[in-house]
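Hi P.,

Sorry for the delay on this. The queue was packed all week, but I finally got your sequence through. Input first:
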Amino acid sequence: MKDFLQFEAMITPVLIQILFWIVVVGCLVSGAMLIVHHEAAEDPARGIAIIILGPIIARIYSEILIVVFRIHDDLRSIERNTRR
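Then the structure:
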């Protein structure tokens, strides 16, 4: 709790992961709706593309954001190890 209150522990990576899963569910639902209601869209392939490409793009974006926080953690670790 002390680390959280002093901003030593980062909560943003957890929030990024939660947001990633929300986006994945949103892609699956919207893609399935496009496939089922293909009268509104000319081609059900759009729904399939959203189901396949949506989570992949969300994963890449999430990983890029999380890498920044991992770099920060590694730099903190190096800082702690070199102080001794």
